[in-house]
Design a protein that fits this description.
The structure holds two protein chains of two kinds. In chain A, about 40% of the residues lie in helices and about 10% in strands. By secondary structure, chain A is α/β, with parallel strands linked by helices. By secondary structure, chain B is mainly α. Chain B contains twelve helices and two strands. In chain B, strand 1 and strand 2 form a beta hairpin. The model of chain B has no long low-confidence stretch (mean pLDDT about 95). The chains are: A alpha/beta, B mainly alpha. Chains A and B meet through helix 2 of A and helix 4 and helix 5 of B.
Chain lengths: ~250, ~325
């Protein structure tokens, strides 16, 4: 092919995987049908959250207009991921993947499809292989830019109070110019605490987005990662999440 | 025979001897296949044997999926083929990576649906127009991003998907508007399938020279010529039963139909091989266990569909009823 530029083709990363395996694969790439279905599904769920849980969102102007970006939030409920994805601008939500999912989303073929369409869920997070998982996520951020939702407490808080953020988030963003947006979620713990089978609208769901932070100059290393984690935790705390959770349902509804 | 009967009534499913014959022959072949596989697979490796059995099991699903809608009525035939066309276009997009340009990809799929609806409505003008308008629409939506880099490439890939699987393949759907479409449609489908099998068998028995070693190393010249001759004979004989009067009943027309189906089926096969080599994948997908993707199975039909349709049409092989436009009036 002298003198002319060759076309190159990159098949879908999940090429050759059959349906069942594909929906549980971290390599899954969505086509237009899945993306459109996801947008419609999220807009319906948003309406439902507004009506039934009186979802309110503030600080949306802090959400970057472009990916990659990382969202960190306090974690008290299964409602958290859903609420964040439904609150985000549709264009950003369509490119954003929750990392807290673990394997819970992929326990059955139907659930895997639902999680894939509604939440863009991909099983990138493996509790036991944290180091390998972080390498994979960094690669994902670089090769296929998208948004990530992270709950740096590591697990849902049983009593609704804010726990220390783990260093993983620091490891992910230290030395990069990826913006990190802190989010405080209020009311989710009251509506659907860990251990209950289904959510009940006992409080208003309030999401507060904070100003994005970047850690371009932060060095690599455990201490630096923990500093980043602590400063992001302070951001989330100052946005109000844990205070409200500690004071109980009454103040949340006000 | 009115449109409603053609679209929905399976009462006439077996009113033509060719329909009965082809259905019985394919059903019989599927039932006898285990004997053949057991006989032929002696000495093969375990893995190869497993693949043959897997392939047969998948055929048990594909064959009814093709025959049952055709027997039930034209509505199911056209809807089924439209679904096949959209699924094929999706596979093509994912294989080439064109699916990442969501707009063009979605427009191509939508236009394939419209072409299918045009066929269902028996409205040839609409059926035809959707290709030209589709090309224009794809070229236009690819402008929206204001990104000239890669414009030709992404537009061309979307258009190729539309034309291959919408325009070409759905000629089979339009064919179902003939009041006696069942034997004609099954003739095309079975002849194309037969030609695939014959090329393999004749090639195994007599194959010496490679047909296109770089594109598809397994195919031989002897297999291709033998399959072409036998497929032509098959079409020639059966079309003599389907058409008894008019130009299409003449020997020369029927010979031409056979040659055209045989040649276009082989080209379709080689086209997919070329596409796969160009992209660098082994199979077009993973939908059909043992076969690969949809396109690995239906590649030959894509090109044979418009060729067979137009040869039949030009020799007056169809008996279109009324002015068409069943639903839009």
């Amino acid at each position: 092919m002298s003198g002319s530029e060759e076309w190159t083709y990159t098949p879908a990363a999940d090429h050759g995987l059959s349906g069942r395996v594909r929906w549980r694969s971290a390599r899954r790439e969505a086509g237009w049908a899945t993306i459109v279905a996801g947008r419609i599904a999220r807009s319906l769920v948003r309406r439902w959250l507004r009506w039934r849980y009186r979802l309110r969102v503030s600080g949306l102007q802090h959400v970057p207009g472009e990916v990659p970006c990382v969202f960190v939030a306090n974690h008290t409920s299964h409602l958290d991921t859903l609420a964040i994805l439904c609150a985000l601008p549709p264009r950003i939500a369509a490119r954003t993947t929750p990392l807290a999912a673990g394997d819970a989303f992929f326990s059955g073929p139907l659930r895997a499809r639902l999680a894939g369409v509604l939440l863009n869920a991909r099983p990138v997070w493996r509790e036991r292989r944290a180091a390998a998982a972080f390498a994979e996520i960094r690669r994902l951020l670089r090769d296929r830019p998208g948004g990530l939702i992270l709950f740096p407490e590591g697990t849902r808080s049983r009593d609704g109070t804010l726990r220390a953020f783990r260093g993983g988030i620091g490891c992910l963003v230290a030395g990069t110019d990826v913006p990190v947006v802190p989010i405080a979620i209020q009311g989710a713990h009251a509506c659907w605490p860990p251990g209950e089978r289904r959510p009940r609208p006992r409080a208003d769901l309030v999401l507060s987005f904070g100003a994005p932070r970047t850690f371009t100059e932060a060095p690599t290393g455990k201490e630096s990662w923990l500093r980043i984690a602590a400063s992001l935790q302070a951001d989330v705390r100052s946005l109000g999440g844990p205070v409200a959770a500690e004071e109980g349902e009454e103040s949340v509804a006000s | 025979m009115d449109h409603l009967e053609r679209l929905l009534d399976p009462g006439h499913a077996f009113s033509h001897p060719v329909t009965v014959g082809l259905t019985l022959a394919c059903g019989g072949a599927l039932l006898l296949a285990p004997l053949l596989i057991a006989f032929a697979s002696r000495g093969m490796s375990d893995e190869r044997q497993r693949e043959l059995w897997l392939r047969w099991r998948t055929w048990l699903v594909i064959a009814p999926a093709l025959f049952v809608p055709v027997l039930l009525g034209a509505l199911w035939t056209i809807l089924g083929l439209t679904l096949l066309a959209i699924a094929s276009q999706r596979e093509f997009s994912r294989m080439t990576g064109a699916f990442r340009e969501g707009r063009g990809d979605a427009v191509a799929a939508l236009l394939i649906l419209l072409i299918g609806l045009g066929a269902l409505d028996h409205w040839y003008g609409f059926f035809n127009a959707m290709t030209g308008l589709g090309v224009a629409l794809i070229a236009a939506v690819e402008l929206l991003e204001d990104r000239p880099r890669g414009y030709i490439r992404r537009t061309a890939l979307a258009i190729l998907g539309l034309v291959f699987f919408g325009t070409c393949l759905l000629h089979l759907g339009y064919l179902a508007n003939d009041p006696d479409y069942r034997p004609k449609l099954l003739l095309v489908i079975v002849a194309v399938g037969l030609q695939d099998v014959l090329a393999f068998v004749v090639g195994r028995l007599f194959g010496k020279r490679k047909l296109a070693p770089v594109t598809s190393p397994g195919k031989t010249l002897e297999g291709a010529v033998g399959a072409l001759l036998l497929t032509t004979l098959f079409v020639y004989l059966l079309s003599g039963v389907i058409w008894t009067t008019g130009t299409m009943a003449e020997a020369s027309s029927r010979l031409l139909l056979g040659l055209a189906i045989g040649l276009s089926a082989q080209c379709g096969d080689l086209i997919l091989s070329s596409i796969k080599r160009d992209v660098g994948v082994k199979d077009s997908g993973a939908l059909l266990p043992g076969h690969g993707g949809l396109l690995d199975r239906f590649d030959s039909l894509t090109l044979a569909a418009p060729v067979a349709f137009h040869v039949m049409n030009v020799f007056g092989g169809f008996a279109w009823v009324g002015p068409g436009r069943v639903f839009t009036g």
